[in-house]
Amino acid sequence: MKLLVTTKNVPLHRKFDLWRDVSYERLIPSEARKSGDGPFEGTLEAADMGGVLITRSTFGALTTDVTPTNIRRHGKQHTLSATIRLSGTAASAQNDRSLIHNPGDIVIVDRSQPVRLDFKAPTQSLVVEINRDRIENLLGPAILYSALRIDAGLASTTLAVNFFKQLITLQHTLTPDTAARMSSIGVDLLVASIAERMALETPKPLYGTVLVQRAKAYVEAHLGEQTLTPAELALAMGVSLRRLQELFHERGRNISDWIWQRRLEVAAARLSDPGGLPVSIGAIAYGCGFADQAHFSRRFKEHYDLSPSAYRRAAARRQPPS
Question: Which is it for the CA torsion 131, 132, 135, 138, positive or negative?
Answer without folding.
Answer: negative
